[in-house]
Amino acid sequence: MSDVLRIEGLFTDIAQYHILEGVDLAVPRGQVTMLLGRNGVGKTTTLKTVMGHWAAKAGSIRYDGQDITAWPTPARARAGIGFVPEDMGIFTDLTVEENMVLAAASGPPDAARLERVFAAFPPLKTFWKSEAGTLSGGQKQMLSIARAMAEERVLYLIDEPTKGLAPAIVSTMAGALRELKGQGASILLVEQNFAVAKALGDHAAVMDDGRIVWTGAMAELAADAGLQERLMGLSMEAE
């Protein structure tokens, strides 16, 4: 299986702080790779560096066989990388429909794509003409992911999509991500809900202090409470 994304020796500084300290990470094509670790170890910075929001100080980012380390963010998006930030990144004063139209650089989403979005997130069809700011927190998160689905993407970078959501909404979110994977997408997913990580992940990479300290099958990590404790100071079995 080929890797859709390969990061080697990635260093990223933010102001005077050294955040990424030589990250090596591979994301297999058509799979869900979980990026795990305690808060503040560099997971979000990794996603933002891949997307070009932060510039890499050193190292390389290869996407779909191309070195994109120096590409601007719009070029990465046009090449098929979708980013769902933790802060959702929606326009609250625009309608759900307007948010979706703006998210698709190639033009308004076609009917077939919209039907897939509505099947994954039925409330968005109900509130299609409503301002995004009037949606609940869970519905806003649905819209955030739907915006990344507005046109076909090869790779999705998704930052904590279930954070702060009620269990029923978490289940809906997990189902939508599973559907994305079923459509052949590759996903690099930062997630603190370990039940979701266990259910969705094919592979896992654990970060600590700006580096990847373990990689392997998600099932292997999920089955080994001692490994979880050693890597992250917690046990999934307690979640």
TrEMBL record:
SMART domains: AAA. It comes from the Bacteria. Residues 5-234 form the ABC transporter domain. Gene3D superfamilies: P-loop containing nucleotide triphosphate hydrolases (3.40.50.300). GO terms for molecular function: ATP binding; ATP hydrolysis activity; branched-chain amino acid transmembrane transporter activity. One of its GO terms (biological process) is L-amino acid transport. InterPro entries: AAA+_ATPase, ABC_transporter-like_ATP-bd, ABC_transporter-like_CS, BCAA_Transport_ATP-bd_LivF, P-loop_NTPase. The keyword ATP-binding applies. Pfam families: ABC_tran. Belongs to the ABC transporter superfamily. This is ABC transporter ATP-binding protein. It comes from Psychromarinibacter sediminicola.
